[in-house]
Amino acid sequence: MYQFLDVFFVVFHFSLIAFNLTGWIWRKTRRLHLYVISATIFSWIGLGAVYGWGYCPCTDWHWQVKRALGEADLPASYVKYYLDSISGFAWSAPLVDSIVAISGVGALLISGWLNYKNRVE
After folding, report:
1. Which of 19, 68, 70, 80 is the one with CA 20 to 30 A from 29?
2. What value, to the nearest 5°, has the Cα angle with vertex 44 and ends 73 and 2?
């Protein structure tokens, strides 16, 4: 079961990140994107105030699965974990966190602007 959940979280979390970064592009997905990216930013900041800045429930759940599979020393960042895994290079956690935060806030601002423009038109 844990193997299935590990694969599920890889696919789901990667898809969520991809949608957060690109969902604003298509007019039909812009409203959904605004909701999803807003929930993501709320998680990072709102839930982050309680659980640690940048908190993501998907990462938390996935790390529980990975620990059950015997993995240890997991970083706080899902993106850092996979960048390290894919590249074979140990990425700087502050650099990855900065890129993720700037990209997320940028996507939120673009989505907000485009959703506003769509309502005005």
Report:
1. 80
2. 45
Q: In the numeric block, which tokens belong to residue 8?
A: 């599920």
Query: What would the 3-class secondary structure string for the chain be?
Result: CHHHHHHHHHHHHHHHHHHHHHCCCCHHHHHHHHHHHHHHHHHHHHHHHHHCCCCCHHHHHHHHHHHHCCCCCCCCCHHHHHHHHHHCCCCCHHHHHHHHHHHHHHHHHHHHHHHHHHHHC
Q: Express each pLDDT in 38-51 by its tens digit.
A: 999 999 999 999 99
Record the pTM.
0.91
